[in-house]
Amino acid sequence: MRRRGRANGGLPARGARPRRAVRTCVVTGFGINADDELAAAFELAGSRAQKVHIRDLTEDPSRLDAFHILALPGGFSYGDHLGSGVVFASLLKRHLRPALERFVRSGKPVIGICNGFQVLVKTGILPNLTGGWQPEVSLTHNENGTFIDRWVAVAFNPLSPCVWTRGLDAGELPIRHGEGRFVAASETVLQRLLADELVAVRYHPENPNGSAHGIAGICDPTGRVFGLMPHPEAFLFAENHPRWMRENIGEGWGIRILRGGVDCARALG
Fold first, then answer.
1. Residues with catalytic function
2. I want to staple 252 with a disulfide (CB 3.0 to 4.6 A). Which of 16, 64, 88, 236 is the partner?
3. What is the pTM assigned to this prediction?
4. Using CA atoms, how far apart are residues 68 and 22, in angstroms rounded to an integer?
5. Domains contained in the chain, CATH given
6. Both ends of the chain: CA-CA distance in Å?
């Protein structure tokens, strides 16, 4: 019986350039609870994902150099006892800043989801408008004071430089957070984010947590560092969607977001 697929056991044709193997570092640690899902999602998006404990990275920051994507999953890192993402952000800033700056400077993409988004903004690596890793925005308690766990409609900004959301328009993603309301340190910072199209995704038409301008996710000026509160790793297949039995859902929006980061990393060569 003839084997399906390409000749030569599925190897690339002679003279063809093999696809770059993209390696994703999914950081795990105390209280993080979406690392397995995110690692599996990156595998489906075309990357080789490896979970790495934050302690291993802080003890040997050079481990980060072996990866092409850095992903910070959702959860409740260190119990969020001092505030969402505060302890985790402190560890990154104290032990990993040179390695992270080198990572971003080399053009490698970074994503933070939910708690990971909170970590990125409290570290100051996002949006990093001044280039000094000073916290300029934050994510605080939802306006209604309760934990929100449901699906929401979102709209992606076609003018944003964000490599993760390129080509996307509107869809739905699940959220599950108690501290997801986006706020800026000043009106100046907020207007800069809006003017430079760094707001990559908004809640639309409903704003479930009271975020300023309905902001659900932002990127840095390079477009490669991206944080969002909705969970892309929770919408990979049509069957993940609550209405998949009644509507023609198609491919999950989450896998499209992660694929955007993988494509960016692969294009680095």
1. 114, 231, 233
2. 236
3. 0.91
4. 6
5. 20-267 (3.40.50.880)
6. 37
